[in-house]
UniProtKB/TrEMBL annotation:
The keyword Flavoprotein applies. Keywords: Flavoprotein, FMN, Monooxygenase, Oxidoreductase. GO terms for molecular function: nitronate monooxygenase activity. This is Nitronate monooxygenase. Pfam families: NMO. Belongs to the nitronate monooxygenase family. NMO class I subfamily.
Length: 329
């Protein structure tokens, strides 16, 4: 299919302006290889790997499997005690780009700039976008209200134009894309591309169990709820019977600790650790106690497919929508 040229495709040398978003436990080396071979790019959370040895092995596997670009997501706040180790590995092995989340990217940008590694920063408002732009970020990822995982508070049709007007660096949209029509909409709003995750969970290459993948087929946008139980920060999950049983709010002790200035840092780290363990059990084990992270775009997931099939369908819909617009004009 015909290439879609934007500043993002030129920056990364890809055919289509799509980043397969980094997803905790879901993203694998196989997924990133499949993404690159399908004309897009993918990123993997460094936290998906327990040790630096495993992390390095995955990067080497991706490099061996494709010549296409790939990225790594780094959690930049204090809950990630391994951040500097992960960053040093990314710099040493020269990943193509880094996506920063939940914290100041200052150290990451300072390390990556001299060696030519691009840095894209998750933002939810103009204030933080201007901060990371001044620090030297290469692009901002506009995390909007429809995003999966840690969603932002603002709808895409408000957030993207406001960031495009306020910033001189490119804006990538994250959230609210499950088909080619929605992808075209985000680019028409001024985004140079999209970061899309949830529709890729239900793929053959996805690193989670079939129950999780099938849940993305069976459930829809109306089944997505926000919870603070996983990281202390509101996060989107599928409203399974178990999620309904345990509730989406932190208990009184967790809330109290998170409000205490002295204990807040440690409470957040503990919540994050417990939440990640809960997700890990759900992603890899068949259990009633399932907590599956996903966004509203699972509404458009109708079957478990390959990464390439998801990409091809998205691009075909994008081109069809573009042709309709041309005919009307």
């Amino acid at each position: 299919m015909e290439k879609i040229s934007t500043p993002l495709t030129e920056m990364l040398g890809i055919k289509y302006p799509i980043i397969m978003a980094p997803m905790f436990l879901v993203s694998t080396a196989e997924m990133l290889i499949a993404a690159a071979e399908s004309g897009i790019t993918g990123a993997v959370p460094a936290l998906n790997y327990r040790t630096d040895k495993d992390f390095r092995a995955a990067i080497h596997q991706i490099r061996k499997g494709t010549k296409g670009p790939f990225g790594v997501n780094l959690i930049a706040n204090k809950s990630n005690v391994r951040m500097m180790e992960q960053l040093n590995t990314c710099v040493e092995l020269r990943v193509d780009y880094i996506i920063t989340s939940l914290g100041s990217p200052r150290k990451i940008i300072e390390k990556c700039k001299p060696v030519g590694i691009k840095v894209f920063c998750d933002v939810v408002d103009i204030k933080y976008a201007k901060i990371v732009e001044e620090l030297g970020a290469d692009a901002v990822i506009a995390v909007n209200k429809e995003a999966g995982g840690h969603a932002g508070p603002t709808p895409a049709n408000e957030l993207i134009p406001s960031l495009v007007e306020a910033c001189t660096i490119p804006v990538i949209s994250a959230g609210g894309v499950g088909n080619g029509n929605q992808m075209k909409n985000k680019i028409d709003l001024g985004a140079v591309g999209i970061s899309m995750g949830s529709p890729f969970i239900a793929t053959n290459e996805g690193g989670v169990n079939n129950a999780y993948k099938q849940a993305c087929v069976d459930y829809g946008a109306k089944d997505i709820v926000m919870t603070t139980k996983l990281s202390g920060t509101p996060c989107t999950v599928i409203n399974t019977p178990y999620m309904q049983e345990i509730g989406t709010k932190q208990n009184w002790l967790e809330s109290l600790l998170n409000k205490n200035k002295t204990l807040k840092k440690f409470a957040k780290m503990l919540t994050f650790y417990k939440g990640m363990k809960m997700l890990e059990k759900s992603a890899f084990g068949a259990t009633y106690k399932s907590v599956w992270c996903a966004g509203p775009s699972i509404e458009y997931v109708k079957s478990i497919r390959s990464v390439k099939e998801v990409v091809d369908s998205l691009i075909e819909e994008y081109h069809l929508e573009s042709e309709k617009v041309e005919v009307k004009s």
